[in-house]
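Study this protein:
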Amino acid sequence: MYLATADLPDATAKQVAATVVTRAHSSATAVAASGKGWTSAQPSLGTIVVQGLPGRDLAMVVVQAGDVDASAPAGAVQAGAALVVDRLRAAITPSTSVILVGPVIQGKPTPRLLRVRDEVRAAARTKSVHFVDPIALGLRQGQPDLAARLGAAAAVYINPAGS
């Protein structure tokens, strides 16, 4: 199982990954890496995700968007998320579950953050991968149960066999 996040603190990301592994009753190692958003050029999240993969045969890869892309032009986040999925699919086995996660926001959702969420959802639909919507789940940065709730939402899609 591998988790790459755009805006969660490393400690929270590691808790999310651990929750997914526990929920899946798996002995897999939970790995977390942080990126700079879907559209950042130096370095792109797609490069970080693929370079950080601990192996090809994983039960799940979770990639979480962030609010860093709220200023990106319309369509850029969807294109960036689709590129991440393409790079992942070329680097992992076909049985690995891929989950894209929308941004976890700090306060009320702004129109720009809703656009980021909608573009990530559209990329997930286009690429036939799973999508988790933290905004719809009422998740906010700083919530004491954020890691557990986000991990539980992603764990629904794990491939327990990992192959």
Q: What stands out?
A: The first strand starts at residue 2 and ends at 5. The chain has a mean pLDDT of 78.
